[in-house]
Each structure stands twice: as structure tokens, then as C-alpha cells.
Target: TadE-like domain-containing protein
Amino acid sequence: MPGEDAPPGDEGSAVVEFILVGTLLLFLFLGILQVGLILHIRNTLAADAAEGARHAANLGVPAADGGPYAQALIARTIPGRADTVCTGTDVEGPGGTPLVQVTCKVAVPLVLVPLGDGVTITVTGHAVKEQP
Model:
């Protein structure tokens, strides 16, 4: 007969244990997905910032053009990230090498595990400025 092997009062405890453990595993899984999403956005931002710096490093292109170029790339590669702010500036590298630096900053909301306001990601891309 069902329930003869279980001590008295333990009927149904497997269902409760499954729900408790399942809830913890669900939050762990969602946390891992959220970290993966943030890392994907960071890597894509870094690639687009570097591409913006390479664009601005071309001969005859002002360094300030790298920021809008990177923003346009980010708007195409990461849907919904049109709020990114990118700036391009001339900097001096090691040994006085002229560089272009593009810095991009974006706030990423925590959508899978809504704990807090989100994460602000700042990335920087560099490229050597072409000289005549």
C-alpha cells in the first residue's frame, strides 16, 4: 500500500522539498544567464569602441568622430542600447605615440534577476592615429 514505507507524517514532503530546491536552482540559473548577458554586452561594447577608435584614427578624421561612429555600431549590434554615450579624444600613448581613445558608457538593467538599478559598464578602445 502507498505510504507504508514512510514514517507517519512524512507524506507529501517530497513535493515540498522539490519546490524549495527547484526555486533555488531557478534563481541560480537566472543569475548565470544574467551574468552571461552582461558579459556579452560588455564584449560587444568593447569591440564597437575599438572599431570607433580605428575609424577615428584614419588620416584626416577628427578624433571626436569616433564616438558617434561607435554609438551607431552599438545601436545596430545590441538592440535596445541606443542610450549609450561614446566620446572620442586624442591621447598620447607610450613614447609619445598619438592615439585615439573612444570611451563608451551604458547602463544595463538587471532583467532576469531584478536586484537593484542595474550595472553601468564603461569600456575604452584605442587605436594609433595615422600621421601624414
In short: The chain has one domain: 13-128. The first strand starts at residue 85 and ends at 92.
